[in-house]
C-alpha cells in the first residue's frame, strides 16, 4: 500500500523572498530567514547574536538606539 503525502511547503526567506534551501535557517519575528539575510537595515552588518526590531525592520543595537 502506498500512501501519498502532500509535499512540504517550501519556506521562503523574509529578507530576500527566495526559497530557503540551506541546512540552517533563522526564525526572527516569527518569520524564516537565511542566516546571511539577517542584517541591520541601516548599516547592513550581519546580526549573528542579537537584533532589535521596529516596525518589522531589523537593526543592530547602535542603529536601533540612534
From TrEMBL:
<dbReference type="GO" id="GO:0000977">
    <property type="term" value="F:RNA polymerase II transcription regulatory region sequence-specific DNA binding"/>
</dbReference>
<keyword id="KW-0371">Homeobox</keyword>
<keyword id="KW-0862">Zinc</keyword>
<dbReference type="GO" id="GO:0030182">
    <property type="term" value="P:neuron differentiation"/>
</dbReference>
<keyword id="KW-0440">LIM domain</keyword>
<dbReference type="InterPro" id="IPR050453">
    <property type="entry name" value="LIM_Homeobox_TF"/>
</dbReference>
<protein>
    <recommendedName>
        <fullName>LIM zinc-binding domain-containing protein</fullName>
    </recommendedName>
</protein>
<feature type="domain" description="LIM zinc-binding">
    <location>
        <begin position="11"/>
        <end position="66"/>
    </location>
</feature>
<dbReference type="GO" id="GO:0000981">
    <property type="term" value="F:DNA-binding transcription factor activity, RNA polymerase II-specific"/>
</dbReference>
<keyword id="KW-0479">Metal-binding</keyword>
<dbReference type="GO" id="GO:0008270">
    <property type="term" value="F:zinc ion binding"/>
</dbReference>
<keyword id="KW-0238">DNA-binding</keyword>
<dbReference type="InterPro" id="IPR049618">
    <property type="entry name" value="Lhx1/5_LIM1"/>
</dbReference>
<keyword id="KW-0539">Nucleus</keyword>
<keyword id="KW-0677">Repeat</keyword>
<dbReference type="GO" id="GO:0005634">
    <property type="term" value="C:nucleus"/>
</dbReference>
<dbReference type="InterPro" id="IPR001781">
    <property type="entry name" value="Znf_LIM"/>
</dbReference>
<dbReference type="Pfam" id="PF00412">
    <property type="entry name" value="LIM"/>
</dbReference>
Amino acid at each position: 500500500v502506498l500512501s501519498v503525502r502532500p509535499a512540504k511547503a517550501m519556506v521562503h526567506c523574509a529578507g530576500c523572498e527566495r526559497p530557503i534551501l540551506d541546512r540552517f535557517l533563522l526564525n526572527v519575528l516569527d518569520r524564516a530567514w537565511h542566516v546571511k539575510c539577517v542584517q541591520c537595515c541601516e548599516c547592513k552588518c550581519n546580526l549573528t547574536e542579537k537584533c532589535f526590531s521596529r516596525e518589522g525592520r531589523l537593526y543592530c543595537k547602535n542603529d536601533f538606539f540612534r
